[in-house]
Amino acid sequence: MNEKLSAFVDGEASARETAAVLRQLGRDAAYRRALSRQAWLHETLRGEQLPLDDGFADRLAARIDAEDGASDRVIEMQPRAARFRRHWLGPMTGFATAASIVTAVVLLTNVGQDAPETQGQLAQQQTPPPAAVSVASATQRPVSVNASAGLGEAAARLGARRGDSNHWTVSDPAIEDRLNGYLLEHNGLARGYGLSSATPSFVRVATYGQGSGR
Amino acid sequence: MKLLLAVTLAFATFAVWPASPDDWLARASEAVRTSNYRGVLVYLRNGKMDTLRIVHRFADGHERERLVSLTGEPREIIRDGGVVTCVLPNKRMVLVARHSMSGLLNSVAELVRAEVGANYSIEDRGTQRLADRKCRSIAVTPRDEYRYGYHLLVDEETNLPLKLDLVQGDEILEQMMFTQIEFPETITDASLAPTFDTEAFKWVRHQPADAQAGAEPQEAEAAAAKSSPPLAVQDVWEVTQLPPGFRLAESGVRRIGNGDYARQMLFTDGVTTISLFIAPPDSRPEFKGATTMGAVNAYGRQIDGFQATAVGEVPEVTVRFITEHLRRRPTTAAAESSTEK
User: Fold this and answer.
1) Core vs surface per residue A36-59: b (16+ CB within 10 A) or e
2) With contacts defined as CB-CB under 8 Å, which chain B residues touch A116?
3) Is the pTM of this model over 0.90?
């Protein structure tokens, strides 16, 4: 368990492992406590001596539950065709009339390569399936945490020639702090200009400094 | 009757008229800002994968958003209109940045046709399926080395971009994609509230020196001018040459932290943005040269003791270009003083 949690806390878990951890968090109080301790251990090892925050994982799980009941409605990834037809065709029909809430569950395995439609259809006939999706009406809101093999590997391929993706490539923490402050300011002011308005904002701000860099 | 027929035909023609690639970008921009949605976003880049939970609400013309880091150290970003609150529980710190929302008026919907075409080619690559969702593939390809390219998969039903690739040549630098998303009719305030009790945390505020909202705007402006008059005078700082297609969009003095001030100049080419910060001399170490964090590049240099730093989601050559073309002109007072001598 600790190995999985450690990978999760370090941001090194694959998507499948991440999904498994999130599912377990929703079900198991002991697991949530273990996550809090693992996060504390992670920070302590990085030299940031902090009081143990026992409640972090509980709050996180409670928040997720309160918002969408994910822990109760998580579905396991299955071969796409069977799962899709059994669960989602009905709600898709309902969507046309109800359509007040749409839930799209995107299960991705083809990261880094967008398959054209025909290739995607071809791939669906093979195993494992590349993707599955669900759409549901307001009366039935399936929520699923994705499970996707290969996301971690895809991440490793991206920007392979670049430096650390969560830390500025500077050695002085004071300079890094200054640059992080500038990044926050930049994202705030840039919001609304160009494509920054077409993407969820502050994703970089939410991830800078993560990992075991410094 | 004829009029009714004409109107109906006109409407039908408009309705079936195929959307241009620009239209798709505009729709995506609008959907990101004006839809209610919540989901899980995966952010992939060099060897790293972060998972974030996102909740976004648009109600009564007001945008609110919350991002929670689900991997790595706990972190929350809450945006309420122009106020961004960044909760860093492990550091027991809260950063609050306040911005005007004027930029939203200049969103891609307005700019795409006017100025983007000279710097990018925008191509509709047809329909692709992403996890069985029918998406429109839009490629935004730069015409020179000063910017990155973008590949978007825009959900044809909701217009929300479900996937965004940031590319440089043939290399994919980053990918952001929703792995789970839903579109509830309403989102409660509780869904947008911070998870952490931040009462005992240290609060650090960033805001315009002339902020109308927030604490002590007049005092902040006065303090900025007193602390560093050259920052308070926009004309003192000038970028003599910009990379092709870029223009100055905004400039102002900001309080960054609880006592520091910096001038921030924002440049855009209609797709991407670069901020140039000019900070007065302080005790912090100088930053010279280039650094990078994923696809974001920064370049710093010293000018008369001032720290100039450009930051943006652009190649290194672009932030370097802007920083190296920054000039400080003597103020009138300084020039007069010099003449008297």
Assistant:
1) bbbbbebbeeeeeeeeebeebbbb
2) 126, 128
3) no
